[in-house]
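Second opinion, please. Pick holes in both lines of this record:
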Amino acid sequence: MQKTYRTIKADGISEIEIKKSRFICALKRVDTEAAAKAFIDAKKKEHWKANHNCSAFVIGADNQLQRSNDDGEPSGTAGMPMLEVLKKKELQNVAAVVSRYFGGIKLGTGGLIRAYGQAVSHTIGEIGLVIGKLQQAVTITISYPLLGKLQSFLENGAYTIKETIYTECIQLICLVDEIEVPMFSAAVVELLNGQVTLENGPTSYYEQPIIE
């Protein structure tokens, strides 16, 4: 199981205009080839008046599955530059469709390559990216007087506190990178002189925004 992945924050659409041609880019998170193809088909139906509905998608760890389609544009000028943007951003499980409404001015081979790549890059910038990390939930149970000390430790270590539960004692559910759990637990026990109970919970992917 991979430790991390990068993908778009959410599905989204944006539009740019280049020499009177409209380039409408739609991005969607997909996890199978069938889902990617269904998304592409849906966009083709939605933009049936467009001159071209070019597409690209990457699926799987290390992008084992990659596809692109120029949909009538000169070979290599649309789908491939779109795919290259997805790969350069190291994205996983993302499909892109760029619908072009021709504005009457030809862009040339180089212009098309730049335009389709720019359409995808612009939409990625509008939506934002996230990194998914394989993390384990660790429940820390302490008495109230130890809260300040523990909170300071967690904030300085940039650990995520998923939930804090106040009863006769305090429980903090923290998210820790799976590989760091033994080291993290030992550090907490030492910090609080053993006056703590730790319990490891489920492991799953948690997503955090990427600031670029």
